[in-house]
């Protein structure tokens, strides 16, 4: 399977919202408008496309601060369940981290405490748990770990 990464486009957003409903049942999945807001606010979003299927994953990161003092925050990574475990999530994460590394920025994220595959993926890419957010995900009330990866030196 060949997966191509490309910046997320407006025509990708309905599929992102559809995947959100599949991936995050019992939560408050992002709508097309939420993704549009992220793009309009200058956040970086990338899509994973597999032929002939189309969009099978997405990821986004915010770049905060100013030159010499940036930090990044991963807002989301989602992969179609049929494509999980095939390296799509890893490719999306690496793309976001490459972007952060160009800024020499530390990276932060939240992840459900019961999402063991994601936690392991993040740990293999240098993230460590730095905190716990009780009842972070709504409406389920699931807890989240805050994880961080230091910025890469210049």
Automatic annotation (TrEMBL):
<keyword id="KW-0808">Transferase</keyword>
<comment type="function">
    <text>Acetylates the N-terminal alanine of ribosomal protein bS18.</text>
</comment>
<feature type="domain" description="N-acetyltransferase">
    <location>
        <begin position="1"/>
        <end position="152"/>
    </location>
</feature>
<comment type="similarity">
    <text>Belongs to the acetyltransferase family. RimI subfamily.</text>
</comment>
<keyword id="KW-0963">Cytoplasm</keyword>
<dbReference type="Pfam" id="PF00583">
    <property type="entry name" value="Acetyltransf_1"/>
</dbReference>
<dbReference type="InterPro" id="IPR000182">
    <property type="entry name" value="GNAT_dom"/>
</dbReference>
<dbReference type="InterPro" id="IPR016181">
    <property type="entry name" value="Acyl_CoA_acyltransferase"/>
</dbReference>
<keyword id="KW-0012">Acyltransferase</keyword>
<protein>
    <recommendedName>
        <fullName>[Ribosomal protein bS18]-alanine N-acetyltransferase</fullName>
        <ecNumber>2.3.1.266</ecNumber>
    </recommendedName>
</protein>
<dbReference type="InterPro" id="IPR050680">
    <property type="entry name" value="YpeA/RimI_acetyltransf"/>
</dbReference>
<dbReference type="InterPro" id="IPR006464">
    <property type="entry name" value="AcTrfase_RimI/Ard1"/>
</dbReference>
């Amino acid at each position: 399977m060949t997966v191509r990464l490309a910046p997320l486009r407006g025509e990708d957003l309905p599929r992102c919202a559809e995947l959100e409903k599949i991936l995050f049942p019992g939560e408050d999945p992002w709508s097309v408008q939420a993704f549009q807001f992220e793009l309009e606010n200058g956040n970086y979003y990338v899509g994973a496309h597999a032929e002939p299927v189309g969009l099978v994953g997405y990821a986004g990161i915010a770049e905060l601060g100013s030159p010499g003092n940036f930090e990044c925050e991963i807002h989301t990574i989602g992969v179609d369940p049929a494509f999980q475990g095939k390296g799509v999530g890893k490719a999306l994460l690496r793309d976001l981290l490459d972007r952060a590394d160009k800024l020499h920025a530390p990276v932060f994220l939240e992840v459900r405490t019961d999402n063991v595959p994601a936690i392991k993926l993040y740990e293999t890419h240098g993230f460590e748990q730095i905190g716990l957010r009780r009842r972070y995900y709504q409406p389920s009330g699931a807890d989240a770990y805050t994880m961080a990866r230091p910025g890469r030196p210049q």
